[in-house]
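C-alpha cells as discussed.
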C-alpha cells in the first residue's frame, strides 16, 4: 500500500513526512530571515536562501514559494511567533485583549505583545518597505499589510471605546492613528536600535504613553482625573 493512501476514501497523512516538511519550511524561513538582515531584499536571492538552508532551489519554491511569498511568510510568521500564518483573531495576545475588561488591561497586554513581535518583525517589515519602493509585487504586499494594520488598530480602538474609558474628545480614528504610529516598526527601531532601549523599557513606555494619551481618567502621579 502506498504510504499516503489507506483503504478508505481519505488520504493517509504521514507524521514523519509532515515533520520533515515543517523542518524544511523552518530552515527556509530562518535562512531567508538571516539573509534579509545581512543583504536586504534585493541582495537576498532564492538561490542564496537555498544554500543557507542547505536545500535545493525547487525545495524553497515548494515549501514556501517565490521570493515575494517568502517575504510575506516572514511577515506573517513574525506576527504569529510560529512557522505558520495565524489570523489575528486566533493569536493568543488578541484573545487575551478581548477577554480583558478594562482599557488599561487591554493596553498592557498589547504593549507587551508588541515588544515581543517587533523583535521578530521590525527587520522584515523594514525590508518589505524598502523593497516596495522598487518592486510592484512587494509594493502591493506593503499596501495590503499596511491597510490591514490600520484596520486592526481601528478594531482595537473600538474595543477600547467599549470599556467607556477613552477620552470623549478623541474619535476612534484618532485613537487608531496614535496606536498605529507608535506600534510601528520604525518607532521600535528609533528607540530600541538607535537609542538602545530594552524591549521591556519600550513596552513600559508605550503602555504608559497610551494610558496617559488616550484614557479619560488617570490614576497616575502627576495626572489629574
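Sequence:
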Amino acid at each position: 500500500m502506498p504510504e499516503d493512501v489507506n483503504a478508505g476514501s481519505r488520504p493517509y497523512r504521514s507524521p514523519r513526512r509532515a515533520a520533515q516538511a515543517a523542518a524544511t519550511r523552518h530552515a527556509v524561513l530562518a535562512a531567508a530571515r538571516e539573509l534579509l538582515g545581512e543583504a536586504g531584499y534585493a541582495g537576498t536571492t532564492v538561490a542564496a536562501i537555498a544554500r543557507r538552508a542547505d536545500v535545493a532551489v525547487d525545495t524553497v519554491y515548494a515549501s514556501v514559494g517565490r521570493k515575494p511569498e517568502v517575504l510575506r511568510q516572514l511577515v506573517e510568521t513574525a506576527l504569529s511567533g510560529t512557522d505558520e500564518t495565524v489570523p489575528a483573531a486566533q493569536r493568543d495576545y488578541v484573545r487575551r485583549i478581548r477577554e480583558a475588561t478594562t482599557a488599561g488591561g487591554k493596553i498592557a497586554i498589547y504593549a507587551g505583545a508588541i515588544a515581543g513581535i517587533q523583535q521578530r518583525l521590525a527587520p522584515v517589515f523594514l525590508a518589505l518597505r524598502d523593497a516596495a519602493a522598487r518592486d510592484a509585487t512587494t509594493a502591493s504586499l506593503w499596501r495590503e499589510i499596511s491597510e490591514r494594520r490600520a484596520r486592526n488598530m481601528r478594531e482595537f480602538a473600538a474595543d477600547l471605546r467599549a470599556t467607556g474609558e477613552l477620552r470623549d474628545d478623541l474619535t476612534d480614528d484618532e485613537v487608531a492613528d496614535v496606536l498605529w504610529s507608535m506600534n510601528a516598526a520604525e518607532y521600535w527601531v528609533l528607540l530600541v536600535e538607535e537609542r538602545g532601549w530594552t524591549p521591556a523599557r519600550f513596552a513600559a513606555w508605550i503602555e504608559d504613553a497610551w494610558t496617559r494619551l488616550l484614557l479619560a481618567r488617570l490614576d497616575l502621579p502627576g495626572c489629574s482625573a
